[in-house]
């Protein structure tokens, strides 16, 4: 057997797999394309193992490891896809780009901090007001010392 034929078939399979990963938007098809790429690697490992006449059959042993890893990847990938489908009701990769949880009113993005008076865009969420007599109503520990006096209307 000449090694060129399996190498060419393997290169074609790997190229089809790369195209599938880059062009498809369905997560199931992307997983299938990754599996196609792994099978192309397996074909190369076995072909070169036979061509080199390795006594330990290293290529075939590595192929078994790749098959086991591919099976684990499929199981984990399908579990993640099912969890995403339960939460988002889609398996389209373009719609899964946001990390924010989908909201009932807002289309999947978080609220704008400028619209929420309790959210400070620089220091994070503001804390509740201080107890009476503990510093003039300081709401955020990161505020400057002179700021409470200007907020309450007093002068320094």
From TrEMBL:
Q: Keyword set for this entry?
A: Cell membrane, Membrane, NAD, Quinone, Translocase, Transmembrane, Transmembrane helix, Transport
What enzyme class is recorded for this protein?
translocase
EC number(s) stated in the UniProt entry for this protein: 7.1.1.-
Its GO biological process terms?
ATP synthesis coupled electron transport
Membrane topology per the entry is: Multi-pass membrane protein
Q: Which residues cross the membrane?
A: 6-22, 29-52, 64-85
- Which InterPro entries has this protein been placed in? NADH_UbQ_OxRdtase_chain4L/K (IPR001133), NUOK/Mnh_C1-like (IPR039428)
Official protein name in the record: NADH-quinone oxidoreductase subunit K
Question: What organism, scientifically named, is this protein from?
Answer: Streptosporangium roseum (strain ATCC 12428 / DSM 43021 / JCM 3005 / KCTC 9067 / NCIMB 10171 / NRRL 2505 / NI 9100)
């Amino acid at each position: 057997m000449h090694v060129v034929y399996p190498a060419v078939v393997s290169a074609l399979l790997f190229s089809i797999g790369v195209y599938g990963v880059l062009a498809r938007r369905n997560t199931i098809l992307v997983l299938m394309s990754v599996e196609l790429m792994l099978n192309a690697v397996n074909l190369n490992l076995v072909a070169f193992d036979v061509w080199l006449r390795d006594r330990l059959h290293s290529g075939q042993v590595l192929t078994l490891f790749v098959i086991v890893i591919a099976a684990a990847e499929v199981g984990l990938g399908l579990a993640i896809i099912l969890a995403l489908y339960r939460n988002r009701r889609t398996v389209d990769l373009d719609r899964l780009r946001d990390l924010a949880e989908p909201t009932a009113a807002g289309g999947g993005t978080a609220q704008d901090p400028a619209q929420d008076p309790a959210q400070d865009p620089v220091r994070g969420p503001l804390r509740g007001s201080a107890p009476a007599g503990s510093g003039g109503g300081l709401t955020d520990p990161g505020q400057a010392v002179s700021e409470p006096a200007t907020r309450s209307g007093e002068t320094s």
